[in-house]
Amino acid sequence: MNGLSQWARSHKPQAAAIAAAIVVAIVVAIAVASGAFATSEQQPEQQESRTVDVALSVTADHGWDENSTPAIAHIEGNDVDFYHAVTPDAEGNKGTSTVELAEGDYTVSFVSPVNSDGSAFDIYDTGAPVDITVDADAKTAPAVNCPMAQIPADKVTDDMLADIVNKTKDAIKKGDETLKGDAGTGILDKLDGNVAKNPNASDKTKQEATDADKDVDVNDKPAQTTPSTKNDNNAKTDGNAGSQPSSNGSSNSGNSGSSSSKPSQSSQPSKPAHTHTWVNHTATRNVWVSNWVDVPDYGTQQVVVGNKYIFSYDGYATTDINDAKAHARALIMQGVPENYRTEAVYETQTVQTGSHKEDHGTWQTESYVDYVYCSSCGARQ
Question: Fewer Cβ atoms within 10 Å of its own Cβ: the N or the C terminal residue of the chain?
Fold first, then answer.
């Protein structure tokens, strides 16, 4: 710079000014190339993903209680894949929990519990996997309902139990905090004991349930339940755009930065429209089940039950034919007449006179569909 000052004093003021401008331009160019003049607009704004509490509601018709393993929700979508346990409340046969999900589309399915008597549940005939859309701007948060129908222990096959054991181990591996630590240990202990109670469980399946705690680490880090931030890659892209030569200087860098925020702005209207997932809601009622049978009709009648033998000579009477024959011989030996007459002996009896139809049915409880609702938004049909 001392040389520049000496040169300026030895030349005209105009020439000095031109030289100074050239130096400033070189400095500015170097600064632009190094990103020193990058404006805040060039850096993508860190946008926090919006989340919504999604309710998971599980109901069983019978048998689900504190001694059962939980119903385990499997939540997939929006760059996450994790499991969440739903335990029954104090009264049993129903349980509710919530998971915090970022905006996006998800599929939710469930793993059947195993009860303390070795029974399990039929989930997919009653509570099939559902697709939900999480939208923070929606008036109603999505809810997932999973009704379960109990399968008696003697109807639960070994294959079914083996599948539940494997899925429960997967759930512990990829579970959130409801499946880790003491909670995960308790679930595996119940799984071991309850599977052993099933009469159809093979030795192999029982051993798989017993060794489940050796195959998974309940103290592992809980699974990620919200998508990871991807703005780092965007920042690198924008930085490169800012360093590219441009006759427009920093104004183009600013445009590049602002264009990077457009996808997040345009993504809102591009979300797919909500699709209803219709589920049957069932209720119970008492119905008369007919059973028509033939019922006999009875009445009283005079029925001939025998004969009476009356002898003319002495009026002797008997209903026993052998006795009558013996008396006749005795009269003959006496030289007197042995002839007799017979009379029918009647008795009043109750006899069937016909029949009629009667309904011997019973009152029984049946399930029926009283309405259909959307498992995501609650709308009814």
Answer: N
Residue 2, pLDDT above cutoff 70: no
Kindly report the pTM of this predicted structure.
0.51
Contact (CB, 8 A) for 118 and 201: yes
Q: What is the DSSP string of 239-270?
A: HHHHHS--TTTHHHHHHHHHHHTHHHHHHHHH
The C-alpha atoms of residue 198 and residue 112 are separated, in whole angstroms, by 15
How would residue 40 be classed by pLDDT, with cut points 50, 70 and 90?
very low
Tokens representing residue 144 in the block: 């997932």
- B/e letters for 354-373, b = 16+ CB within 10 Å, e = fewer, are eeeeeeeeeeeeeeeeeeeb
Q: Strands across the sheet with 51-60, in order?
A: 94-102, 51-60, 143-151, 120-122
Residue 357 has pLDDT above 80, yes or no: yes
Nearest in space to 342 (alpha carbons), one of 365, 321, 366, 364: 321
Of 158 and 249, the one with more pLDDT: 158
* Contacting residues for 166 by C-beta, under 8 A, at least 6 apart: 208
AA identity, residue 86: V
Alpha helix ranges (H) inside 283-369: 321-333
Determine contact, residues 208/218, Cβ cutoff 8 Å.
no
Pairing of strands 278-289, 362-374: antiparallel
List Cα–Cα distances, 193 to 91, 143, 322, 352, in angstroms.
Answer: 22, 32, 80, 61
Return the domain boundaries, the chain: 2-46+230-270, 51-228, 293-359
* pLDDT the model gives residue 127: 61
Over residues 216-239, the pLDDT tens digits come to: 999 999 999 988 765 444 444 444
**What phi, psi does 9 have (nearest 5°)?**
-70, -25
Gap between the Cα atoms of 140 and 101, Å rounded: 14
Q: Which CATH architecture has domain 51-228?
A: Sandwich (2.60)
Contact (CB, 8 A) for 21 and 66: no
The per-residue pLDDT of the chain, averaged, comes to 81
Q: What is the distance between the alpha carbons of residues 174 and 157, in angstroms, rounded to a whole number?
A: 26
